[in-house]
């Protein structure tokens, strides 16, 4: 996959929809392309994170550690971004992400992303909006779970 | 040391001084004979005195001598020679005297020089010896550079002075007195005038020199301080830059230099004033002769002949006098220096030399207990940090010392390690005060490790084994010429009062190795185990992998590296992990390597920057043209440039992405931008490549497809690059070929690191955990192959730099601990040896060390001052200090149950 294809894919993310092409190209160029084999971990729950992964191909599983061992909670496919939360706040990873098959991804470094966001004020707004959307979804899901538990 | 330098010199060179004085006196005989001879030659054979007759002869070499008292006369009648023969004979005698005088001069100068050098050697050694015997408190206030400058530079003039110390005044004084005596003989009163003037010179000039001496002293001190300051600047470079105080330091140095200049200028003014006065006084005397003598002659009380004789006799006086005064100045000069040095090295409480006596034989194992009896310790400010502490440590015991408040535990450990001397009370090993025991006992039975460590310039191994070098244990065998050279060394060392211990002998005493019983293998075992215990083994391996070795120095090792390379590749193939590393293959394109690497198929010593010799050479581009790659490379470079300009063009020049994300700088990008905007570049004459094309080609050379992902490197082109390798290399002129070391799967690459040689390829990005997997795999293979040991050896040869500065602080701490573990001692005192280490690493190392020492047969005791109090559970006994006194003492469990303070501290 070439640099320009990566840029096309990145653009499909709501985060980057309105970012300049050359800025996106810069982000893609600054990011490292990595390949994971099935079962390899992109990151582990509890680790401190310094990068997010943009999945170019393949599927990843989200695992959460429970007293009975890791439990798969969801999965994510191509053209999605994982680990983005710990990019924005310095906390530990909330779950383990593991490759389900061969996964090709773009490793986006936190510092590099911040540098690029500094240069595009619009992007920060976009990202905030996307995150708020995520928060809304999460809290509504949480509410549903709570309601189920009570019932 | 003697109070004055003259006394010091006399003390150590008495017989030699007397001898050289005699030789000088002896040399006077041919010297004065040579003076008299020209007159004889001119008067005799040339002017013909005694040869008035043509056939007249004179006897040559006739003499007779009557021994007084005995009345025995012996003599020689001489040869009768005619005028011509006499001329030849006398001239030959003259020549002979010239040779004899020259020989005397040569011998005397050499002898004096040797005398001086021996004395210099003696005094330098004595000073260093004193430094080694300074008491610990004094050692803290020393500045190494100042001491070095004293020992190296300030004593230097002593050597030159030694030879003249007694000979010169004796000789010149004699000459001056003789001249004065001669004048008095001619005319008593004129002689008195001369004597009076001499007295004025001898009294006044030295008085005036007082100030010179004072200035000399100041000059010496300021110069020494400057040396200390320069040393500080060098040592503190990091701090200076960190706080932006470089201009403060500049001001400091400049003001010191100004001060030195002022003193020196003052010195010159005085020196030449004194010189002027001295000259004036010696010129005034003839003036008085002319005036007074002339007056007397005119009055008729003095005849002209006498006056002329006096004036003639006087010309022999100022010379020796002047030199005598110069000698006196030199004497005062070195005396000032000597006093300065004397003050600095004459320290109270010097360690008794007997405590440092060389003790080669392994001392008997002692089973005595180490105890502190009512010990008080004061720190430098005089405050009491330990107050009447009595503590007993038995063999085999492990004791944790912790501080609740104050620093009693640390100070106590320092006292056990002899770093601090108790102000009252004593520390005993068995029944003896450790300050009275020789260091050969305390320094071997007690190993002390603290936070501040010092490493000596040398390899890691030298430093690890440092604690085993107590005395030469294995004689170095000298043969033939070297044996004679060695005998000479011993003789000379003795003459200069130096010890003649052989530095080339084997100093490492295997019998003191922690494990085993004295075999060489045991030492290695101890060394490896100690490295493991402090978790330094991986670091050492890493150092080895990072190093560049010269395969010609150790061809076997280089061959082993290649063997390891092959074994690793085979294993990767077997396990189906061959995609982990893309190897350098003579007929394959390595996708992870740059275009340049693929084309050259070799490593270059210097990175391929634009000013690299290879890239700045026209031949390189010509060769590229020959293989038909010049055009395509320029085209690709243009595309790469277009992309890079698009990506980075809009960024401000100080953006961190420059240099970080791309190897180019902002100026490079704008340079390429301007190249791209140029249209229809005029072709340079004689078909040379334009600068723009060269710049584009350089971009191509750095291109790596998976990194840039521009999709411009076609398979066709890759094949062409691989196919052109040989031709391109042969097209390069010889001097450029030398810059490239070509890859050969069966050969060691001397310009690459060990790691690059083992991996011999590029890590592929097809596996995100590739590095870790490769490391594990390589570790396994190297252990199976026995290569890990050799690799470790290579790591142990790593040069750690001055003071170990090429290691990280953590590595230094670990090395410091390992250095103590390697040697077998009865007591190990660890005074917070691992600051700055992570908590869990600290815990692991403490555990490892205790286990390591526990397996030692001599059942050592361990005293450990802990900063992390919770670790005290690993020890048999815990001693808690509070305000310099022992607050609690007992096992961890007891203290935890009974002591509220301890419980609070651990929690």
Question: What's the topology here?
Answer:
The complex is a heterodimer of chains A (151) and B (907).
Chain A (H helix, E strand, L loop, with lengths): L2 H9 L9 H10 L1 E5 L4 E3 L7 E7 L2 E7 L2 E8 L4 E2 L2 H4 L7 E4 L3 E7 H10 L1 H30 L1
Antiparallel strand pairs in A: 1-8, 2-7, 3-6, 3-8, 4-5, 4-7
Chain B lengths: L4 H42 L11 E3 L2 E4 L6 E4 L2 E3 L1 H50 L3 H5 L3 H11 L1 H9 L2 H20 L1 H48 L1 H6 L3 H54 L4 H11 L3 H28 L24 E9 L5 E10 L4 E8 L2 H9 L7 E6 L2 E2 L5 H7 E4 L10 H5 L16 H15 L24 H14 L3 H10 L8 H20 L6 E3 L11 H6 L1 E3 L13 H9 L3 H19 L8 H4 L5 H12 L13 H11 L3 H4 L6 H17 L2 H4 L2 E3 L11 H6 L1 E3 L6 H16 L1 H10 L12 H14 L4 E5 L7 H16 L6 E5 L11 E6 L2 E6 L1 H7 L1 H7 L1
Parallel strand pairs in B: 7-16, 7-17, 10-15, 15-16
Antiparallel strand pairs in B: 1-4, 2-3, 5-6, 5-8, 8-9, 11-14, 12-13, 17-18
Description:
The complex is a heterodimer of chains A (151) and B (907). Chain A has 151 residues and is α+β, with helices and mostly antiparallel strands. Chain A has one domain (3-150): Jelly Rolls, CATH 2.60.120. Chain A is built from 5 helices and 8 strands; from the N terminus they run ααββββββαββαα. In chain B, α7 (188-235) runs parallel beside α11 and α21 crosses α24 (691-701). Among the domains of chain B are: 370-471 and 802-906, Rossmann fold; 585-742, no CATH class. Chain B is α/β, with parallel strands linked by helices and 907 residues long. The A-B interface holds A 1-3, 6, 22, 25-26, 29-30, 32-37, 40, 42, 112, 115, 119 and B 643, 646-651, 655-657, 661-662, 706, 708-711, 765-769.
Average predicted local confidence, pLDDT of chain B: 86
CATH topology of chain A: Jelly Rolls
Radius of gyration of chain B equals 41 Å
Global outline of chain B: extended
Beta-strand share of residues of chain A: 25-35%
Name its key features:
heterodimer, A: 151 residues, alpha+beta, Jelly Rolls, 4-stranded antiparallel sheet, 8 strands, 28% strand, globular, B: 907 residues, alpha/beta, Rossmann fold, 6-stranded mixed sheet, 18 strands, Crp/Fnr family transcriptional regulator (chain A), cNMP-bd_dom (chain A), cNMP-bd_dom_sf (chain A)
